[in-house]
């Protein structure tokens, strides 16, 4: 493993939940960070706007779909961490073409720029959603891929573009495949913020979708640690590495743990419109964490219980009671 200190690192999706934590970790480790945030007319850098490292990074507003400008931003960097994506599964049911453009073409633009500029290393962000409902658990990187939602299909497409660049051009890309990540700054689309927001808003009855699906949740600081390790580890081009804990809990169990984290005794009710279509619901995600330990020396440090407490603490002063019960797609 080399050191990240002194390296110039481009982070795409730096304005987002995981990206902003990765940027903070990189700055703490002494990297020079170029932070690509989605262009908007009010100059917002998303979550970086409230980060203590906002003035320590070179923020560039851009769109990952613009190949020429992506190349301009890649030029002069040592390492590229590619996190920009559209990530909501429900929105992918209604606007799938945006997912193809952003997630597949966007990744192609980054790969092409990395190849043309001779960049030392690229880390592409995959997702455990690429497996669909698994045939066997725990899931290993050899497990077949199944596009159970347009989001999943677009991420499979992006992963396959990385594979093709690794095989065809030996592009030094590592495909990092996080399982569900949670923590401060996560969007209300995700299940843990959905539960915690309603509980902290004082709900007696919390509205959720299906309670039976099981997920393997990683705390965001651990995910950020995985990115730094992947950025500094010289793996064969195209290597896929999973980031997950090896523990899976149902949404019903997650709800109970959120009650414990907030001291609430609310009950739960399920809303039909929050359910995914039957063929699209992924019933269980459970990672085999042994490969990440072996190739990156990565093991998650924060338990789900502790991470939920930290997330609830962060959310406590930010709860928007009027919007807590709204279903965010
Ligand atoms: N959150 C999870 O549980 C999870 C799990 C596995 C993988 N991932 C992956 O991690 C990455 C980051 O996800 P996140 O949870 O931080 O989501 P996020 O939505 O907070 O971050 C994604 C960022 O990408 C940016 N973006 C979207 N379209 C863009 C475009 N056209 N040009 C430039 N930027 C654009 C958005 O502004 C956003 O800030 C994604 O690639 C996602 O697929 C997330």
Automatic annotation (TrEMBL):
It comes from the Bacteria. SUPFAM superfamilies: NAD(P)-binding Rossmann-fold domains (SSF51735). Residues 10-311 form the NAD(P)-binding domain. Gene3D superfamilies: NAD(P)-binding Rossmann-like Domain, UDP-galactose 4-epimerase, domain 1. Pfam families: GDP_Man_Dehyd (PF16363). CDD domains: Arna_like_SDR_e (cd05257). InterPro entries: Arna-like_SDR_e, NAD(P)-bd_dom, NAD(P)-bd_dom_sf. This is NAD-dependent 4,6-dehydratase LegB. It comes from Gryllotalpicola daejeonensis.
